[in-house]
UniProtKB/TrEMBL annotation:
SMART domains: Transket_pyr. Its EC number is 2.2.1.-. InterPro entries: PDH/Transketolase, THDP-binding, Transketo_C/PFOR_II, Transketolase-like_Pyr-bd, Transketolase_C. One of its GO terms (molecular function) is transferase activity. Keywords: Thiamine pyrophosphate, Transferase. It is an enzyme of class 2 (transferase). This is Putative transketolase. The keyword Nucleotide-binding does not apply. It comes from the Bacteria.
Length: 321
């Protein structure tokens, strides 16, 4: 595995990584085009617009049209990246995504910023906590939520090469960058961040950093936890999950999403058929968010390392004797 992964003092937003990756792709690939729904400053597609204005299209506040235009460009041989806030791209445009992009298997990349409660002060109306669920339920859709700046850049390059529709959630706040050695993102493959046999924590997005802190806190208590970064929610890395269920006997999932329908549900669905063990979910407990600082909201809704520790101890207590 090389040197252990660890969070650094450096903090960057995953949406910034998306903007940088688009510019890199624009330089190396003439077939990459970018579309936005009048939010390019927030989604960071403005970086691409400045560099390659002839390949940038602002459709205005019309998310259904955004997706429809992307579908047309894909049919014309381009690789379109279409962006808006997660609430609008996965919510308002869902039917067009389903019928105009995924059903015909078009090569459209949907990258949604401002997902989860870390949108912060914008409040519950903009804090999309349902996108994993409503995107992964579409047949043959790929769904990804990277953990930090560096992984996000790898994700964007990987989906540009992948043929088919993809939904990626990136975030608004600057979060810790994770220091890794020789890590290469692969669609559908989990990253093993730590090894332990007492419990396995499976996390994605902003919750990976919290889970890493939790692993350290658990170790201080004599509990040794495995940690999987499950950036790809669909397709799941079934082999890795089942192997950890057999090794550890208890699972904790961590996501900035409703506990209904997201990563935790996907893991539970798999293990209920393949290898049933206790699965405890850390996430939004079927409730809407609130307006506040993103950090304060993680505290308020119990999405912190200490909460992961509590859930891990509960999962261990439920193991089969």
């Amino acid at each position: 595995m090389g040197a252990p992964s660890q969070s650094t003092a450096d903090k960057k937003a995953t949406r910034d990584a998306y903007g940088e990756a688009l510019v890199e792709l624009g330089a190396s690939r003439q077939d990459v085009v970018v579309l936005d729904a009048d939010l390019s400053g927030s989604t960071k597609t403005a970086d691409f617009k400045k560099k390659y204005p002839e390949r940038f299209f602002n459709v205005g506040v019309a998310e259904q049209n955004l997706v429809g235009h992307a579908a047309g460009l894909a049919l014309s041989g381009f690789v379109p990246f279409a962006s808006s806030f997660a609430m609008f791209l996965s919510g308002r445009a869902w039917e067009v995504v389903r019928n105009s992009v995924v059903y015909p298997k078009l090569n459209v990349k949907l990258v949604a910023s401002h997902g989860g409660i870390t949108v912060g002060e914008d409040g519950a109306s903009h804090q999309c906590i349902e996108d994993f669920a409503i995107m992964r339920v579409i047949p043959e859709m790929t769904v990804i939520c990277p953990s930090d700046f560096n992984e996000t850049k790898q994700v964007i390059h990987a989906i540009a090469d992948y043929k088919g529709p993809v939904y990626v959630r990136v975030g608004r706040p600057a979060i810790p960058v994770i220091e890794r050695e020789n890590y290469k993102f692969q669609i559908g493959k989990a990253e093993v961040i730590s090894e332990g046999k007492d419990v396995c924590i499976i996390a994605n997005g902003v919750m990976v950093n919290e889970a890493m802190i939790a692993v350290g806190l658990l170790k201080e208590k004599g509990i040794h936890a495995s940690l999987l970064n499950m950036a790809t929610i669909k397709p799941l890395d079934k082999e890795a999950i089942v192997a950890k269920a057999k090794e550890c006997g208890a699972i904790v999932t961590c996501e900035e999403h409703n506990v209904i329908g997201g990563l935790g549900s996907a893991v539970s669905e798999l293990l209920s058929e393949e290898y049933p063990v206790p699965v405890i979910k850390v996430g939004m407990k079927d409730t809407f968010g609130k307006s506040g600082t993103w950090s304060g909201l993680l505290d308020y809704f119990g999405l912190r390392a200490k909460d992961v520790v509590t859930h891990a101890e509960l999962a261990i207590s439920k193991k089969k004797k």
